Amino acid sequence: MNSVKTKRLNRVLEVKEEHPKKRVGIVPDIEDFRYVKTEAQTSVSTKRVPASSNKSSSPVRLEKKIRVSSVVKVEVAAPENWEAVLEGIKNIRLSGEAPVDTKGCEKAGSLLPPKERRFAVLISTMMSSQTKDEVTHAAVERLGENGLLDPDAIVRTDEATLANLIKPVGFYQRKAQFIKEASRICLERFGGDIPDTLTDLLALKGVGPKMAHLVMSIAWKNTQGICVDTHVHRISNRLGWVFREGTKQKTTTPEQTRMSLEKWLPKDEWEPINPLLVGFGQTICTPLRPKCGSCGINTICPSAFKEASSPNPKQKKRGLGRS
Question: Domain segments of the chain: what residues?
Answer without folding.
Answer: 2-67, 82-94+228-314, 113-220
